[in-house]
Amino acid sequence: MVSEGSKPVRIGLLGRGTVGAAFADLLAERAAAVEAATGRRPELAGSLTRSDGDFDSILAGSDLVVELMGGTDASRDYVLQALRAGKPVVTANKQLLAQHGDELFAVAREAGVQLRFEAAVAAVIPIVRTIQESFGVTEIAKVFGIVNGTTNFILSEMAATGAGYDEVLARAQELGYAEADPSDDVNGADAAAKMAILARLAFHTSVTLSEVAYEGIEAIQPDDLAYAKELGLSLKLLGVAERRDGGISVRVFPCFLYPGHPLAPIEGAFNAVMVEAPAISEVTMSGPGAGGLQTASAVLGDVVSILAGDAPVHETRVELPIVEDVSSSFYLHLEVADQPGVLAQVATVLGDHEVSVKSVVQRGTGSDARLVMVIHECLESRFAAAVEELARLDELRSPPRSIRVIEEEYSA
Ligand SMILES: NC(=O)c1ccc[n+]([C@@H]2O[C@H](COP(=O)([O-])OP(=O)(O)OC[C@H]3O[C@@H](n4cnc5c(N)ncnc54)[C@H](OP(=O)(O)O)[C@@H]3O)[C@@H](O)[C@H]2O)c1
Question: pTM value?
Answer without folding.
Answer: 0.94
